[in-house]
Amino acid sequence: MFALNNPGFNHGGGKVKYTWQSKIEPGAFKYFSPCPPRGISSYKWTATARSDKKKLAKASAKRKYPEK
Question: What would the DSSP string read from start to end of 5-60?
């Protein structure tokens, strides 16, 4: 997750090994959820699928938080 209004803040992230599961279990990686100090901020979430360090696919979404 990347804070477009505050690019210096590290929201964390991580890697999850895919073992043919249908969902990522809670706690699989750590991150700080969006919590803008005031007003509405913009965030970009990105997920990248890799195999043997080769990028297979990438998806991202942008959203304002909190939504109104």
Answer: S-TT---EE-----SS-SSPPTTSSEEPPP--SSS-EEEEEEEEEEETTEEEEEEE
